[in-house]
Write a structure and sequence with these properties.
Number of domains: 1
Strand content: 5-15%
Distance between the termini: 37 Å
Radius of gyration: 16 Å
Number of strands: 2
Strand order of the largest sheet: 1-2
Helix content: 55-70%
Largest sheet: 2 strands, antiparallel
Shape: elongated
Order of helices and strands: EEHHHH
């Protein structure tokens, strides 16, 4: 498991299974909006390593895919809420 701290006074604990590689866990953290520094600290990896991974096309594609998977359900919920409220947000 990794502890992710967005701000010094706001700890966020994510249940990141150790059965998933550090690179895959970093991709998830980045897809959720984390930075290379946050991902590196949470996974006990130097942030420069995460920045290097971010330069790899396959890694970038994984982050993008994860973002789309995460945003899809949120977008669906938003459209349902908008239709229930007369189409406005």
């Amino acid at each position: 498991m990794g502890n992710v701290t967005a701000h010094a006074d706001a700890p966020l604990v994510l249940p990141l299974s150790s059965k998933v590689s550090r690179k895959e866990r970093a991709a998830l953290l980045l897809a959720l909006g984390g930075t290379s520094t946050i991902a590196g600290r949470a996974l006990d990896v130097d942030p420069s390593t995460v920045r290097r991974w971010r330069q790899m096309p396959g890694f970038r594609a994984t982050v993008t895919d994860l973002r789309l998977r995460l945003i899809g359900p949120v977008a669906a919920l938003s459209s349902v809420a908008a239709s229930e409220n007369g189409g406005g947000e």
